[in-house]
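Newbie here. three chains, one complex. Structure please?
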Amino acid sequence: MFISTSGDLRPLTTAHLAQTMFLLEKSTAELAETVASELSENPALELVDERRCPNCNRELHQQAHCPLCLAHDGTDTPIVYLAARDLSTSSRKEFDDAQADRPEPEAQEQLGEHLLRQIGPDLVPSERGVAAYLIARLDDDGFLPEAPAESAAYLHVPLATVQRILGFIQRADPPGMGTADSRHSLLVQLDVLAGDMAVPPLARQIILECWQALGKLDYVHISRQLRAPRAAVTQAAQFIARNLTPYPARAFWGATNGRPRRQQEAYGQPDVAISRSPNHTDGPLVVEVFTPYSGWLRVNPEFRSALRQCQPEEREDWSRYLQRASLFAKCIQQRNHTMRRLMDAVVRAQRGFILHGDRHLAPMTRAALSRQLGVHESTISRAVASKTVSLPDGQIVPLSKFFDRSLSVRDAVKSIVAKETRALTDDQIVLRLREENIHIARRTVAKYRATEGILPAQIRARLQAAAP
DNA sequence: CTATGGCACGGATT
DNA sequence: AATCCGTGCCATAG
């Protein structure tokens, strides 16, 4: 219905196919670079700064798409169109806002720089390389998976140097980075904190001697083992829970409170934006597939005619340019076409999820979708893997979330636990789910709990007893 | 005995 | 061909 773009879109050559795949797996940001460099290298390629409505092909001026086509036809047929990133009007502001207080796409790298800046002044020049190496080796949680001695051997520097630098890293802004594990990290954080606030005397001892019991919130056991009053233990444990984090890297962004660490999903600008139609909130969903350029690509007609009258010795080079430009333009077109069809199918299938949340995610596989669209499975996989989507509520999620087989069930588990009055065991949760016509094994509930960061029933019960 | 987590297997998915 | 996922079995802790 919206496929009125000019020409034949079937892959003509293997080169065409290969390059289209190559382009499909790029995110919008990466595509921007590719297009820019192709434009600068290839004089035969031209960017025409003129936009047309992808539905009716009418020329557009200021608007992102033509209002006639937005006036909805059916009820929930999605409107899918290409939009130049910098011209997208509706969601632009929200992206900026979202980006302001959220982790950047390369949070890891930024965190690294952040650390280096802090400790830089303390280092002699020869130590900077060591510091950079150590920081680069930190994992997602901020731990150093290898022993300092290993790093020292690898870098051919004295162990003492490594230890000195690690000391700086551990005391830098998100405190406790560069330690071996959560336990060491907590101890370091405690030391840092002790500088400017009162730390319960028991806290350190509990972490040192009752690590396992602490994880299980078993205060009775701890107070017996340390021969300390219950109240003091509880107070110390609460201090730990409130002020320290077992995963130092994650504390870099956002607040440290909120115990079941809500791992907020963090991405930069999305590759696709889904929003409600501005006029009819019940109407079709509006889907913007972003392109990194405005206008469209084609072979420069002047270049083509110049070819006829150029010098013979230049002819070969020129026609090579020409061919390459036309191939590139076709591939970009093919990519955009595939992305539009892909998003159209996805949005049709997942309308409920988009509007009403995780619970309504319909099971959908890449394989089935590839059959529906008549493309190869790997095409879908690649296209899905590197893209993010912003939803009407402003969340930015990876496109792959639309293919999560267990999301809706996990959400059901979450809400059952959230509503429970007494802590339910996994078996009881299985029964509750059965009432909602969801049939899964007890073992699976346990797995889902784990991935959602929900504690086992016994510990939840203990928490409930302590809290009110 | 009950609740839970680890390991590993088979089947589906990518 | 490699990976992911749901599940059964078994060991462990309380």
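Moderator note: Chain A has 22 helices and nine strands. The radius of gyration of chain A is 28 Å. Thread marked as resolved.
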